[in-house]
Design a protein that fits this description.
The structure is a homodimer of 473-residue chains. The first copy, chain A, has 473 residues and is an alpha+beta fold. Chain A has helices at residues 3-11, 20-23, 47-60, 114-122, 140-145, 153-156, 192-195, 229-243, 255-264, 293-309, 322-341, 357-371, 400-405, 407-420, 438-442, 445-458; strands spanning 16-17, 40-42, 64-67, 86-89, 96-100, 105-109, 126-127, 163-169, 175-178, 204-211, 213-214, 218-226, 247-254, 281-289, 315-318, 349-351, 375-382, 387-394.
């Protein structure tokens, strides 16, 4: 039986796509930077089928490209142009297998859309805290394979910290059942850590047991205006101290972000608009309180009043309603779309020690503008996690062409500066195809060798998502 | 140059111990279950010396046994009887290299005693939350190598969750510098996860960058009495919901624990003593509040009053002072010593999904007592993490001998029951020598093979702490 017939035998003919039109949506990434080819796109229905598909491909040495919601930003789920690969699309594995409320865990299959996991937890009064822009279409398998971040990392950690157990199909087609719901387990190497954030290069995550938390009773949101990132960091430290773990978001936005929103989305209400120029930095703060709204508002107002009195911030606006909160969040979340409307930009998903961010932004802005006076840094992100979306746009659309022409030089300048400051060139998006060769520049030989050894130990024939993560030799 | 001269050349003659009396303290474990032999005990003074020592040993194929504070409970830092090994004692690497208050991180060398790291953080108003009984003598390197747990896991996670970066000497003597202070970094495999909890079998941790947190403003402690573990789990769920992350401890103790304390330490004040029998289960609750003591007391009293009114608990005592709190904690922390005074016991450091604990304890107690009517389960631990110290003592000292004689049978019965309930036979102590062969019974072949492949990929010559963690073939 040839490969395609073999795959049809495993998953049923309806679930093996080979026609160009059927395959097309699976062969282009979300940002349309990459277009690949494949022998087939296979949609298995359960873990046993995934295992059989992988075993069948392994037998012929056929590369496997796992795919979840196909919302990744680095081409990690798109096959190469050779046409040799089989894309294994996981979306039919979409069952919530179990919720254990007393243990505060949920066991979900890899193809579950993130929002459906959040909803299943909330039905039991529990919170699955992973939250990010693509949550309506990204899948748990993709979230774990990329160790997704998002807006709640400050409180709950990255996707990695939310995983207690995994079920993984290994590159030889065997199933590792590591679906444990334990918060403490020191019986040997913690194997699940290998597969989380490996972008499908070491095995194929089929299901996970995830931590849940009690849903907070109240959420309170506020905007604050400040003159510098140093002061924003001061406010962060104060709120970390006085609000503790109830501080669930601390997002910053440069004046250029707010200006861009005003141009592209004039209908969005801005807290400090009133005709005046946007403040140098706007801060979005969210507290999630297990006690009461009154307590959260009290903590927030005391901290913000003190910060106002001491000149740490220049203006504050506390949301007076759920609608107020939603409109504050909408500002933050609309920035990427506003950038797209404005004609595109050069994106950098970076992280740094929080202490080094103010200096990094000042120096890197200056260096960029010295070389390219027509650029405009659009800086926003999760200051609480040291994670900035340090994106570079233009003041004037007529400069878009030279922005594109200089993209590589801009990337290099920014990433060199990140590296010099002890930072990461990919905070939450992963490496995929986009950045796999960049890291060869920034990682030590030892670290690259260790990665290669792990890859070889688990996937000696380089079957699993080849051409991703590990730099080409 | 022979090995010993070579090592003297690297670290100085004073720091290479070979005389029997000098070496003895390094060759016996804390519980005195294991006594090993070694060619030498070497005390390097910095990472470069550690690297040179490892390289020198590797050249001759000499096994290396890393050792921190030598407080482990499973013989993980004790060499075997062959006398071939070199013990590398890390305690001279005891510098705090940096504290970055704005980034809430500390970089400490492996030989730093846990308490000194806590103290260095507190000097800056920050908390390093790892806390366990041995904190006055255990070291950070050992804590990370065993992925230590302790009393604050419920809020802050295991040692693993507190690590942002590592510096590791690899089995070939090269240094991997992974000392990053980043909360988000997705640039390839997360290599530090390999070394955490590996008990020194994959490399030698020399330094770590660790997360800090703002120190809480107030801590409030209470004792509660309840009739069953089911009700204790109900109280846990309620406090998780109403106190959120301010719930920093939720410890349970069986009546037999309190009875034992009354016998062995009659001077210790017991909250519900008053001549009556100890309640079936006592619960120690701690809230750590960033806001105020008044708020913490309010949250705690509201939750406990409601629990009393609904019969979830039968009695409560809220600490009225720091001294009150300390005496409550002393009860909990004295249980192990009381067990030692009582003549010893068969220890089990197990974890289970919280939801399965009440049934597990009831059934396993019944099975044990059916077979050995003279046993007395002494059950205590971190219910919030699903981690019990399910220890087995005797009512009558005259039964100590048959307890020792039946130790293996008791272990087997308990661990089989743990495994059947989806639990772990080593929640926070690791495997070391003590449990390395036990896991061959409970782990799948696939998992054991994956562990062996990782070991081989990083340490192909089996130099690093051989005879630990990985089961013998």
């Amino acid at each position: 039986m040839d490969l395609i017939d073999g795959l049809r035998h495993v998953v049923g003919a309806d679930h093996v796509l080979t026609a160009e039109a059927d395959c097309a949506p699976y062969l282009t990434d979300w940002r349309r930077r990459y277009v690949g080819r494949a022998q087939a796109v296979v949609l298995p229905g359960d873990t046993a089928q995934v295992a059989a598909v992988v075993a069948r491909c392994a037998r012929d040495g056929v590369p496997i490209v796992p795919q979840g919601g196909n919302t990744g930003l680095v081409g990690g789920a798109t096959p190469d142009a050779s046409g040799r690969a089989v894309v294994v699309a996981m979306r039919r594995l979409d069952r919530i297998r179990a919720i254990d409320a007393a243990n505060e865990t949920i066991t979900a299959e890899a193809g579950c859309v993130l929002r459906s996991v959040q909803a299943a937890a909330l039905d039991r009064g529990l919170l699955f805290p992973l939250s990010l822009a693509a949550e309506g279409s990204c899948t748990i398998g993709g979230n774990l394979s990329t160790n997704a971040g998002g807006t709640q990392v400050l409180r709950y950690g990255n996707a990695r910290e939310l995983v207690l157990g995994l079920e993984v199909v290994l590159p030889d087609g065997r199933v590792w059942d590591g679906l444990r719901g334990l918060r403490k387990d020191n019986t040997g190497y913690d194997l699940k850590q290998l597969f989380i954030g490996a972008e499908g290069t070491l095995g194929l995550i089929c299901a996970a047991t995830l931590r849940l938390f009690p849903a907070p009773r109240a959420q309170v949101t506020a905007f604050a205006a400040t003159a510098s990132l140093e002061r924003a960091a001061t406010l962060l430290a104060r709120l970390r101290a006085s609000a503790g773990a109830t501080l669930t978001a601390f997002e910053v936005m440069s004046a250029s972000c707010l200006d861009l929103l005003r141009t592209e989305y004039p209908g969005l209400r801005q807290p400090f608009a009133g005709g005046a120029a946007a403040p140098a930095w706007s801060i979005l703060v969210e507290l999630s309180d297990p006690d009461s709204e009154a307590h959260a508002i009290g903590v927030l107002e005391r901290a913000l009043d003190a910060a106002l009195a001491e000149g740490v911030v220049d203006d504050v606006a506390v949301a007076q309603s759920g609608a107020d909160s939603a409109s504050m969040w909408r500002l933050r979340e609309t920035i990427p779309e506003a950038q797209t409307r404005a004609g595109g930009n050069v994106k950098h998903d970076i992280s740094l020690p929080v202490s080094r961010i103010p200096e990094f932004v000042a120096n890197t802005n200056a260096r960029l503008l010295q070389e390219f006076a027509w650029l405009e840094p659009i800086t926003f992100g999760h200051l609480g996690d040291g994670n900035l979306h340090y994106n570079i746009g233009v003041h004037d659309r007529s400069d878009l062409e030279r922005l594109a022409a200089n993209q590589e030089r801009i990337n290099r300048l920014v990433h060199d500066a990140v590296h010099a400051a002890g930072g990461s060139i990919s905070a939450e998006h992963g490496l995929g195809q986009l950045k796999r060769d960049d890291i060869a520049r920034y990682k030590s030989d030892i670290e690259l060798q260790l990665m290669a050894r792990i890859k070889h130990a688990l996937d000696p024939d380089d079957i699993m998502n080849p051409g991703k993560v590990i730099p080409a030799r």
